[in-house]
Structure prediction request, 296 residues.
Amino acid sequence: MSSGEHVTIGICAYNEESNIERSIRSVYGQKTFGFDIDEVIVVSSGSTDGTDGIVSGLLPEFENLRFIPQEKREGKNSAINLFLDNKKTQIAVLLNADNAFGDENSLSNLIKPFSDPKVGIVGGHPVPTNGKDSFAGFASHMLWAMHHHVSEVHPKIGELVAFRDIGTRLPVRTQSDEDILRMKLEEAGYTGVYAADAVIRNRGPETVADFIKQRTRVNIGERYMKRDYGYEIPTWKGSLLVGAMFGAVKDMGFHPVKMSMTAAMEAYSRLKASAYVMSDKGDMNVWDPVSTTKKL
Prediction:
């Protein structure tokens, strides 16, 4: 990548007082090789806790940190659109407010593929901070291990994403964001890349009920992508999932009870999501947060 490439980091938050400072500081702890971070823009969507005060308190410390509060919570896509309308660079990075970069080179590894002008979107490698002792914690690790192995074959963009802004703005009545951005970039002739060394740390649900709640919500968004756009999500392809399962076993060892439990929870979540979409209840653009994921 040529020296002097410019990127903007966007962090969308709703009631993230426990995580937002860590997320912002993880950005400023990144080493930048061959690119510059022009701005870090935090959009807070109707937060009612201490999120806004924490971000405001960090503004004097970081001169290129910007804060854009939304008076009313309108969903993540609305916040992303506001971020995109206020940034100045072509390359944008989206970082969830409850996540943090895994190491000081993660952002550099995420941006590196843009040295190829054909690359339009790059996804990072989510790694959960949960322990593996509980069913829910193990399920989160297994889920993201399979995500990793699917993405090595067919990149699945999520959690951490960098992309070229070609003018796409997201429909505010849906929850799908990365998938729509990728679809539009592919339609414009760009390709997607998975950057396995761009590690992002996240927190998975800590209870079975929360795991199913989160996975149902995600799968509803993906089912609407299939229904409304005819867009295939790679993690719904059986052939990719079989290979990913073998990869997860290699990474984590063979745990038949926990792995069977994880598969059953995911299958149940997908059945619930499919039934929800068939009943046409409308996508969940504004969702009830999964509370146990809010401590990184």
The first strand starts at residue 5 and ends at 13.
